[in-house]
Amino acid sequence: MVIKKLHDMGIRSEHAYIAAMASIGLTVVAWAGSLKMEPGTGLDRADRWGLFVGEWAPTFFGLGLALSHYEQQDGTLTATVHELRDQREQKTG
Fold this sequence. Notes:
By secondary structure, this protein is mostly helical. It has helices at residues 2-8, 13-37, 43-54, 56-74, 81-92. Helix 2 runs antiparallel to helix 3 and helix 2 runs antiparallel to helix 4 (56-74). Keywords: Membrane, Transmembrane, Transmembrane helix.
């Protein structure tokens, strides 16, 4: 039900995969930024920031897989955004 709702809102598996990859990059940035901007707090605090952001990646990958599975069943896996918009307009119009 949540996956269908996300799909209906226009969120596709590619979006979730991009978010997962971005969160991996953001993990490194958060760790390095915390290490530089808070030098008195030590490595432990930087590690906590990195781990906090790093925990998002598996969630986004999981959502991507679930959305991909839904898209395969729905037949929209290979459709473009414009094709999906046209399909939606035909259904409602």
